[in-house]
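User: Fold this, then the next.

Assistant: Folding the first:
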Amino acid sequence: MSYASRNKLESARTQNEEDVDVVGRSTRHRRHWWQTKNKRNKRPIPNYNSMAVDSVRKNCLQLTKGFNEDDAPINKKLPKELILRIFSYLDVVSLCRCAQVSKSWNVLALDGSNWQRIDLFDFQKDVEGPIIENISRRCGGFLRQLSLRGCQSIADGSMKTLAQLCPNVEDLNLNGCKKITDTTCQSLSKHCSKLQKLNLDSCSAITDLSLKSLSDGCPQLSHINISWCSNITESGVEALARGCPKLKSFVSKGCRQITSRAVICLARFCENLEIINLLGCSNIRDEAVQALAEKCSKVHYLCLSGCSKLTDTSLIALAQQCPFLSTLEVAGCSQFTDAAFQALARSCRYLEKMDLDECVLITDATLIHLSMGCPRIEYLTLSHCELITDEGIRHLSMSPCAAENLTVLELDNCPLVTDASLEHLTSCHNLQRVELYDCQLITRVGIRRLRSHLPNIKVHAYFAPVTPPPSAGGSRQRYCRCCAIL
């Protein structure tokens, strides 16, 4: 082969190697090839790693340039005002995602007008003080509603910043924020005069000082929840009632130090009360309920469960003064009799939900009166009402409420109820759930018959396991497995 031919072949092979090398060879091979090829010319050896990074950066900038700038297609189609309005319907997570799309979207998504209502319940324990402080700075006067329910890391410092920077907040939920103390309520009183709703449920460090502060600085307060704040006494409730006459909802579940005096003060100064929950306030007596009935005729939800010192006098007063009562919960009020519920049935025709759990003195007469006088009942609890029989259930099943509205009936621990009651309930076409735990005279056959008429109904019952028969033959007694283990 001639020298010229050999040079042509070498040149072609070198060209092919160059084409393949750019794609498939390692950096070490590429550098070795460049050293051999450019040994005579003394050319600088290129850094392919740096070249690749620069190329990627250049391409990314080209791809994102059109979207980041104001002349992006979506920004041409929609004006900023319309995009801002669309963002106002998004939740916190969606807004944060939109803020990462482009610079213009970042400005619009983080605009304070989009952050008027914030619920951080999904984040719960992950939310800490700095996050609340950042939100406070971003929202400022736009913030109206904030829920920190379950955010146990939130403390007084961040809440003080919130109160100072967000003076227009109207609805604040601090349920389960156990680090919150009276300092937070003092800050709210000082800066947030427009506060209307405050939930302090399970904020165990809250005392009467918080209620006194709120009464001084939050005259617009209409809803408050101090459930399980065990340090609250009648002194704090009285101060709150005097300073917040617009109260419509007062919830104090588990506050055992609240007495009749505190409730009477509420009735006197807060005549617009509509929702009252005194569950577990065992020191409440008849005079307190009488005061509520006399002064707060607009009440439609009343929970007196666990107020075991109350008598028929309370229910009779409610029957005479509160015709709009729709929900009545009196579980554990064991002194109520048929006479009290007869008075209610005559006057309170809007009753929809009644919890009579452990009202052990009532009989079928109560069901007869309710079936005639309360056509709107949807939810009825008769658990542990041991004097209720099939006859009472029969009257209930024939009532207007059973035919149209009754959806839940709880009969746990009613020992006199039999399968005949289930037969009567087949006419309750809207019935969705029946509780039959520990009803000893209810059988599986009766439940199957009920389900055959109401296929969508949920029946909750418990049947004890059958006692094994004694062993046949032999004098040795046969023990069950648990006895053998013991």
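Now the next one, as you asked:
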Amino acid sequence: MNFLFNKYNHFNLANIVTFFNITCGIFAIYFLTHDEFLGAALFAWLAGAFDIFDGKIARKFNLSTEFGIQLDSYADFLSFVIVPAMFIYFAIFDGKEQFFSMTFIAAVFVYYVISGLRRLIQFNLNANEGEVEKYFTGIPTPLGAILLWIVYLVFLTGYINEYFVLFFMVLVGYLLNSKIKIKHL
């Protein structure tokens, strides 16, 4: 069991927790594609819990490595960029293609995904093993996912329409790469 605390083992404890994040993202996508939104939401939130714990474990047991930094960002891309975008699409727009410009919707979703990917790549370029910045520059992708989840819940109330959801996706995509400073927890 020493491999769990070996910093350079790709299957150390911190990375295993990150792999659980990825697994939850995959299950969330499965449930989304089967119109099981509750299951998708549960796995998306579980991915968020694993994302919190992998970093804490890496710092507590000195397991932070370049591999772990890259792995965490790939997990974040899946669980906090792709899954929320798919969630919004399948929960709000799927089946309504005759009512909306699919070119416009596709452009918004592509913008959001590229914004999330760009944010994670920039984060990796600025990250150093074992160091945690006091502030994020731009909102982190998990916060972006939470904001999309909130706008989805508000959409369910009927207070906002599909166009506001699209506007909000563009706004969150912009904020991912903005100069706004957010304190690291």
